[in-house]
Amino acid sequence: MDRPSIQNEEQYEALRDQGYSKEKAARIANTENAGKKGGGSQKYEERTKKELYEQAQKVGIEGRSKMDKQELIEALRNH
C-alpha cells in the first residue's frame, strides 16, 4: 500500500465511497474513537464563535480570522 496505516480500514473505505478525500477519510478513520458512535460532540451551532475559531485553528483553516460564525461552521464542515 502507498498510504499510511489506517486504524479503522472499514470506516476509511466507507468514507472514500462517500466521496471523502483520502486525507480526510484517513484523518477520520485514525481518530482515537474511530468507528464508535457517540454523538458526544456539541453541535457547531451550539458553540461560541471563539470555540469555532479555536477548532478552525487546530485543523488549519485559512482565513478564519475574517470569518463570521456561520462561515466558520461551513469551513469546519467542509474541511
Automatic annotation (TrEMBL):
A single BP term in Gene Ontology: DNA-templated transcription termination
One Pfam family for this entry, by name? DUF7218
| Residue ranges constituting the Rho termination factor-like N-terminal domain according to the UniProt record | 48-76
Which domain of life does the UniProt lineage start with? Bacteria
SUPFAM superfamilies linked: Rho N-terminal domain-like
Q: Where is the composition biased (Basic and acidic residues)?
A: 13-26
Where are the residues of the annotated region Disordered? 1-47
Query: What InterPro entries is this protein classified in?
Result: DUF7218 (IPR055642), Rho-like_N (IPR011112), Rho_N_sf (IPR036269)
Designated name of the protein = Rho termination factor
Organism of origin: Pelagihabitans pacificus
